[in-house]
Structures are given as C-alpha cells and as structure tokens.
C-alpha cells in the first residue's frame, strides 16, 4: 500500500501559517487545498493547528466518510470543545447512543414542532428590521444577538434580552399586543430576566473553543469552563422548577423535560428518557452548533444579495407575489413558506458559495482504505468541503453567485451545506425557516448597502465576514 503523499511543513507549526492565511481570504482554504491537490491528488497529509491530518476531497471521499458506515469514523472535536460541551453531548457520542440522543433532543426541531415558534420568529424578524433604517448596522453583530434571543426563547432559557437589547424587547412587546395569537405576559417577562447573564456566558463559552487548552485563570478555555458551569447552574434551577410544576411554559426545554427527563433520582431505564446531564450537555450543544452557523448564513446571504442585484430583484419579485396574493392580514403565514422556490435556491447557493463549515472533521475509529491509501485508527481525517462546493465540473464558474445552479437536482454528495448521513444538521428546518421569514420582510420592505468593501474572513471555524458587514438600511 502506498504512503500518503503530502508535506508536514515546519517542526511544530507544520503548515499552519499557510493554512491560516488562506483561511482568512474570501475563497477560504480553497487555495491551500487546490495547490496540494494539484501536487498530491485528492488525498494528502499535512500538519495544521498542531495536528497530523489527512485531507480528502471529492464526492467519492464524502460517500465513504459521511455515511460513517459500521462506526468507521467519529466526529473529531478539539480538546477544548470536548471539555466545554461535556461527555454526553451528541457531538461526542457515536453509534446507537448518538442516534438515540439525536432523536430525542432534535424532536422539537421537526417541521411540525417548529410551527409553535413560527409566530414568534415572524414578530422577531419584523421588529428587528424595523429598528434598522437610518443607522449603521453591523449586521453580523445584530444578527448574532437576535439569533441568541430566538434560541433562548425556544430553548428555555431566557427571555428578555433586557441587558443586551432593551429596544428589541420593548418593541416586540408592542407588536405582540397587536397580534392576539401571541401572548407575552408578565410572568414570562419575569422568567426571562436571566437573559443578559446567559448571553454573556454564552459569548465566553463560544470564544473558548479556539483557545489554548490550559485550565489556567486568564486563559479563554478556563473562562469558558467557568461560564459553562454558571449556565448549567441556571439550567439546573429551571429544570428543577419545571419538574415541580413551576414556571410552566410551552417551549423547547419544557417539551424536552416533560417528555424525556428521568426522575430526579436518575432512576428508571426508559429508552426515551434523558438524565439532567444529557439534557444540559445537549441544550448547550444545540445552542453552540446553531447560533454562529445561522448568524453567518444570514450575513453571507445579505452580502451576496447586495453584490448581485439581479438575484435580489428576482427574490423581491417572489416575495412581492406572496404578499400580493395574501388574503388575510399583513403577516407571513406558515403555508406561504411553501411558495418560495427561488428563496430556497438562494439559501443553498449562499451555503455553497460561503461554505460556512469549510471542512468536516472526523477521527478514524478503525483502520480503513481510501483511494488506495491506508488510514489508521485514531487519525484525524478532514473532508475538504470548499473544493467539493467549487468543483467546476459540478458548478461551472464556481465563484459566481448563481442560484439557478439548483434548478435541477444535483448528484448526491456534491452539495453539503447541511452535511449528509447520520451527522447531517438536525437544525436544517429551523435554519431554513428563520432565514426564509427574515428574507420575506427584508425583500418586501427594505433596501441596504454595504459601508465598506472588504472580503476578508474571520479565522474561526464558522466562516464569517471579518468586518461584521456594516450596512445602512432604508425603507422602500
Ligand atoms: C444555516 C445554518 C446552519 C448550517 C449551515 C449548518 C450546517 C451544519 C453542517 C454542515 C453539519 C454537519 C457537520 C459534519 O458533518 O461534520 C451540521 C451539524 C449539526 N448542526 Fe447545523 N447548521 C446550521 C444550523 C443549525 C441549527 C439552527 C442547529 C440547532 C438548532 C444546528 C445544530 C447542529 C448539530 C447539533 C449538528 C451535529 C449533528 C450530529 O453530530 O449528529 N445547526 N450543521
């Protein structure tokens, strides 16, 4: 069997510098990958970010890695991620346990389950956009706050983002009273007072993943673990209140606790029950996995639309039609989500072009072969998704933003915006729902322009514009 080709670069740092410098450009790791693929082929080794890594690309590699048949690979988290997310996060489990946790935790994220949050997201989108005209909006930052608020509402946890965004809260309250379906009472408001604290903790947790792995005061990782413990203490108190029948609220956590939590003593062996640790680890997992990705997707979408006025016009037309054909009321309805075929293509093209998660990281759980090379158990194996999304044979002129690429069904494994196989994104419906609602009001009511032209990208795992995409917004 042949040796895997590639270069390990310099001692200790390996090829990290060229990897990181390409990573921060608009085309991301594409150049890094392309150079090496031309020299070595579709499978090559490297040493980046302190790890010996085998990179692979192409639909063939995806077909082998993503279905993860017979427990061949597991998800490969960094040490910091493993420690912060906890041992029962479904990102850390494999096989049947992974499937069971995923089934229980992701249940409220089904299309049916999401109907409960439709009205809330509708109002949140309207009120958020309503505050933007006439001022500079750092889109990434604002979307991030709103995303968190939305998650919190569902997840439980928190309610008023008073500390973070009193304005949104106040205006939401007004809108809420104008819609009889949507109740927002004082009890709920009181319940939500912890929001500011949770948001602060969440931000610390998020920034601890890309830290040095030392539990020493002052290091981001140490602060992340502490913030995680504070958040878990809040969750403990909510879980115990709910278990005692206090603070009843029809939300995401409520549904998980009512359906799945084990008795407080942990007794019972019901397959459909979760321990408190499993609940907490996985609520945090959903928050971490869903927050930055959706924020980034919305930001890229705004940027690509602004840079492609023809696409924006076509999108506006789709949404104006929906609005014009609406018989009752002025707000988007759930059934109108099915009348947005072009919007769906714009979302897919955004995820292709931005490739928010540029590579999927796996660890070989056993020896296996790929493309004539032997992969050994324990090796880190990364699927380079950027190259798959920019393969000119599947996507001609790959740098062009062109939603019509999705007019016809694509070959399996050529578009991996939400992944594929047992690890495919369980938040796909929620993400699409949120983005579609947001686009509807945006396209019908506003225009915007970027305040600066800067294509650099933050060097974080989830790709986001470095300048936070500053824009000015005007009502149409
Ligand atoms: C536009 C927004 C989103 C994008 C582009 C996205 C993308 C992805 C991708 C590509 C994967 C597969 C990664 C891999 O195979 O290594 C994934 C997994 C995952 N996503 Fe998302 N996601 C988004 C939104 C969300 C939301 C809203 C949630 C939660 C509510 C979420 C939760 C997760 C979780 C928990 C996993 C891991 C699944 C597992 O290991 O079984 N994502 N996501």
Automatic annotation (TrEMBL):
<dbReference type="GO" id="GO:0016705">
    <property type="term" value="F:oxidoreductase activity, acting on paired donors, with incorporation or reduction of molecular oxygen"/>
</dbReference>
<dbReference type="InterPro" id="IPR036396">
    <property type="entry name" value="Cyt_P450_sf"/>
</dbReference>
<dbReference type="GO" id="GO:0016132">
    <property type="term" value="P:brassinosteroid biosynthetic process"/>
</dbReference>
<feature type="binding site" description="axial binding residue">
    <location>
        <position position="425"/>
    </location>
    <ligand>
        <name>heme</name>
    </ligand>
</feature>
<dbReference type="InterPro" id="IPR002401">
    <property type="entry name" value="Cyt_P450_E_grp-I"/>
</dbReference>
<dbReference type="GO" id="GO:0010268">
    <property type="term" value="P:brassinosteroid homeostasis"/>
</dbReference>
<dbReference type="GO" id="GO:0004497">
    <property type="term" value="F:monooxygenase activity"/>
</dbReference>
<comment type="similarity">
    <text>Belongs to the cytochrome P450 family.</text>
</comment>
<keyword id="KW-0560">Oxidoreductase</keyword>
<keyword id="KW-0479">Metal-binding</keyword>
<keyword id="KW-0472">Membrane</keyword>
<keyword id="KW-0812">Transmembrane</keyword>
<protein>
    <submittedName>
        <fullName>Uncharacterized protein</fullName>
    </submittedName>
</protein>
<dbReference type="GO" id="GO:0016125">
    <property type="term" value="P:sterol metabolic process"/>
</dbReference>
<dbReference type="Pfam" id="PF00067">
    <property type="entry name" value="p450"/>
</dbReference>
<keyword id="KW-0408">Iron</keyword>
<dbReference type="GO" id="GO:0016020">
    <property type="term" value="C:membrane"/>
</dbReference>
<keyword id="KW-0503">Monooxygenase</keyword>
<dbReference type="GO" id="GO:0020037">
    <property type="term" value="F:heme binding"/>
</dbReference>
<dbReference type="GO" id="GO:0005506">
    <property type="term" value="F:iron ion binding"/>
</dbReference>
<dbReference type="InterPro" id="IPR001128">
    <property type="entry name" value="Cyt_P450"/>
</dbReference>
<dbReference type="InterPro" id="IPR017972">
    <property type="entry name" value="Cyt_P450_CS"/>
</dbReference>
<keyword id="KW-1133">Transmembrane helix</keyword>
<keyword id="KW-0349">Heme</keyword>
């Amino acid at each position: 069997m042949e040796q895997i080709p590639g270069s390990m670069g310099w001692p200790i740092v390996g090829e990290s510098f060229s990897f990181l410098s390409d990573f921060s450009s608009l085309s991301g790791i594409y150049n890094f990958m392309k150079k090496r693929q031309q020299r070595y082929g579709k499978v090559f080794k490297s040493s980046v970010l302190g790890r010996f890594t085998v990179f692979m690309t192409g639909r063939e590699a995806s077909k082998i890695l993503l279905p993860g048949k017979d427990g061949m690979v597991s998800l490969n988290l960094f040490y910091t991620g493993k420690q912060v997310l906890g041992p029962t996060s479904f990102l850390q489990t494999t096989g049947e346990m992974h499937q069971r946790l995923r089934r229980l935790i992701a249940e409220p994220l089904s299309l049916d389950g999401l109907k409960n949050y439709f009205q809330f997201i509708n109002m949140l989108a309207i009120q958020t956009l309503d505050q933007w005209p006439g001022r500079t909006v750092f889109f990434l930052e604002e979307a991030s706050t709103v995303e968190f608020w939305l998650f919190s509402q569902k997840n439980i946890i928190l309610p008023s983002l008073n500390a973070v965004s009193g304005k949104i809260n106040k205006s939401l309250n007004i809108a809420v009273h104008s819609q009889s379906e949507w109740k927002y009472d004082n009890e709920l408001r009181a319940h939500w007072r912890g929001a500011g604290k949770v948001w602060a903790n969440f931000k610390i947790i998020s920034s601890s993943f890309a830290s040095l792995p030392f539990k020493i005061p002052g290091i981001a990782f140490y602060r992340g673990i502490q913030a995680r413990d504070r958040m878990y203490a809040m969750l403990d108190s909510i879980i115990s209140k709910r278990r005692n029948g206090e603070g009843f609220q029809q939300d995401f956590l409520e549904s998980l606790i009512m359906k799945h939590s084990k008795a407080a003593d942990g007794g019972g062996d019901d397959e459909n029950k979760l321990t408190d640790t499993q609940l907490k680890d996985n609520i945090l997992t959903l928050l971490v996995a869903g927050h930055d990705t959706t924020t980034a997707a919305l930001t890229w979408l705004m940027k690509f639309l602004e840079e492609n006025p023809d696409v924006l016009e076509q999108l506006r037309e789709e949404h104006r039609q929906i609005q014009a054909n609406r018989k009752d009321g002025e707000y988007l309805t759930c059934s109108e989500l099915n009348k947005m075929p072009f919007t769906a293509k714009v979302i897919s093209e955004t995820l292709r072009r931005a490739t928010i998660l540029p590579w999927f990281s796996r660890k070989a759980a056993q020896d296996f072969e790929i493309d004539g090379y032997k992969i050994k158990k324990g090796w880190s194996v990364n699927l380079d998704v950027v190259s798959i999304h920019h393969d000119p044979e599947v996507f001609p002129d790959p740098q062009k933003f062109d939603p019509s690429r999705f007019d016809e069904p694509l070959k399996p494994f050529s578009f991996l915006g939400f992944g594929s196989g047992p690890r495919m994104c369980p938040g796909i419906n929620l993400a699409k729902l949120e983005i579609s609602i947001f686009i509807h009001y945006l396209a019908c009511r506003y225009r915007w322009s970027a305040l600066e032209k800067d294509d650099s990208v933050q060097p974080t795992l989830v790709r986001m514009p470095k300048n936070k995409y500053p824009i000015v917004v005007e009502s149409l």
